[in-house]
Amino acid sequence: MRRARSLPRVARDRIKTGADREILQTYPYRSAAPSSLWGELADRATRDIFLAGYTNYFFFTSVPAFPETLRRKVASGVRVRFLVGDPEGEVTRQREAVEDTALSVSTRIRITLEHLQRLGTSEGLELRHSAAEDAVNHVSLSVFRFDDDLLVTPHLARLVGHDSPLLHLRPHGDGGMADRFREHAEELWSRARPATL
User: Fold this and answer.
1) pTM of the predicted model, to two decimals?
2) Residues of 150-165 as b/e, b for ≥16 C-beta within 10 angstroms?
3) Of 105, 101, 100, 74, the residue nearest 90 (C-alpha)
4) DSSP string covering 76-125, please?
5) In tens digits, what is the pLDDT along the chain, a chain of 197 residues?
6) Which of 190, 73, 59 is nearest to 125 (CA)?
7) Is residue 88 within 8 Å of 106, Cβ to Cβ?
């Protein structure tokens, strides 16, 4: 800290200190993140992949060979979890009316479910639907975790996920922003309904 203070102000303004060090990158749109980012983070994960987006479908349509990556990760002992919304739920229907897009929210969830069913049942791959009372909190904030890296999308008003901002975070100490987002996703998971693959 002393060293940062001894630097000229222009340099201090460019150096991340404190909680700012958790923010690795920000993107004005999730779709502005490099397409390679998702696959690289999944490839590097050695303990835990937790995808807590409401639909998670873009992993299967935008990340090359994603099902094969998941198979390889599960086989190597990585815990892989998917938390998705209920395709028949009230919040899903409400969000479809808000977004008013041809590729509906329920269709995007079903794309994910179809890909997961193709992967089949295997120890280490888990699927849950968010609880009805948590669905509104789930649909408004996506948290994607790859070991210690988190990619977080707060969904804006009527925008679909790829048009909302994205934060790339990594914890630096305890109780920071990354921990808070991680705890949010874990809380949703703890009340979610297990689903069979």
Assistant:
1) 0.88
2) bbbbebeeeebbebbb
3) 105
4) TT-EEEEEE--TTSHHHHHHHHHH--SS-HHHHHHHHHHHHHHH---TTE
5) 445 556 566 644 555 455 568 999 999 999 999 989 999 999 999 999 999 999 999 999 999 999 999 999 999 999 999 999 999 999 999 999 988 888 999 999 999 999 999 998 778 899 999 999 999 999 999 999 999 999 999 988 776 777 899 999 999 988 899 999 999 999 999 999 999 87
6) 73
7) yes
